[in-house]
Write a structure and sequence with these properties.
By secondary structure, the chain is mainly alpha-helical. It has 7 helices and 2 strands, in the order αααββαααα. The structure holds cobalt (II) ion.
Length: 164
């Protein structure tokens, strides 16, 4: 199995080829926010691992094995985004959170999360129930924060009154 970092590369290379038709070292470097020399090193490693074929001036293509894994990694990423969206995670957190967890879950967990996403998709009323529960919990959180803030103000007022 590829390491987390190899997975990031295979995932991005697969996406680039899918979207642009090719993946250049500079495109990969930009997508992953790393130095092109790191890309070259990793690309050579992936070449040795038979995930892709790299020819310096002709560019790079994924092998059958690389394509198969790339497709799975992209699907896994999309599934996790879908999952976080359904459970109500804020849009602005979703991409980074998925990037953070995707390499650290077993395929067993991924498959079960897949079931859950499917379950929610087939039962939209459950999604609505979940949203209602979230609203209640969020309201309680807000109330707690307000209470804490009031307590702090009261404490401060008391301290001011206490004789030194
Ligand atoms: Co990803």
């Amino acid at each position: 199995m590829p390491t987390p970092s190899m997975e990031d590369y295979i995932e991005q290379i697969f996406l680039l080829i899918e979207n642009k038709g090719y993946a250049r070292v500079s495109d990969i470097a930009e997508a992953l926010e790393v130095h092109p020399s790191s890309v070259t090193k990793m690309v050579q490693k992936l070449d040795r691992g038979d995930y892709l074929v790299y020819e310096k001036y002709r560019g790079l293509i994924l092998t059958t094995k690389g394509k198969k894994i790339g497709k799975r990694l992209v699907e896994r990423h999309d599934l996790l985004e879908e999952f976080l969206k359904i459970i109500g995670v804020k849009e602005e957190n979703i991409y980074q959170d998925v990037e953070g967890i995707e390499h650290h879950l077993s395929w067993n967990s991924i498959d079960r999360i897949g079931d859950l996403v499917q379950y929610f998709e087939e039962n939209p009323d459950r999604v609505e129930e979940l949203k209602m529960l979230q609203r209640t919990n969020e309201d309680e959180n807000e109330q707690e924060k307000e209470d804490n803030a009031e307590e702090i103000v009261e404490d401060n007022e008391q301290e001011e009154k206490e004789p030194i």
